[in-house]
Amino acid sequence: MTSQYQRARYALWNHKSQFINTPIEWRTTPRSKQFVAIVQPRVLHGKVTVQASTKGNLTVGLTEDQQDAIAHWTSELPDYVMPSTAETHGVIEHGGTYTTLDTMYRAGAEPPVIGEQLNVRVVVDVSKIGPLYKAHLSIVDVHRCDVPT
Fold it and tell me: Tell me: the pLDDT tens digits for 53-62?
């Protein structure tokens, strides 16, 4: 690894402070009553399995341990906020952009393929759907750790 960007990405993916750990501290905004938390993207322990992959969408399957980690991470939300599908169904369905890194932490790798095992960094927010509130996980970037360079 020679690039300063590669070294920075390596640190983001491998330092112990970057993994999902303690529960998030949530706040409610005074006027809109929305739930907010200032949370940087966190690395989900272990590998996920790609279930569907297109240019702007990615669906990954989680293990039970990963589901438990997500449940612990979002455990400070009030009872009336519905848990994320990552927690209840073991799936993260991401729509939108995300960065793909190769084994050497270089950005711009090819998108993952179905069945591939990879690492992900995720961020969580709370969406309001009519009168309901639901936790939602989004994928920020993926690390294709098993792809030769």
Answer: 987 899 999 9
Asked whether residue 148 is assigned to any structural domain, the reply reads no
Range of the domain at 74: 4-143
Q: Where are the beta strands (DSSP E) in the chain?
A: 27-28, 35-36, 42-43, 48-53, 57-61, 81-82, 91-95, 99-101, 117-129, 132-143
Determine, yes or no, domain membership for 96.
Answer: yes
Looking up residue 52, the CATH number of its domain turns out to be 2.40.50
- Supply the pLDDT for residue 147: 56
What SS3 class is residue 16? helix
pLDDT of residue 58: 95
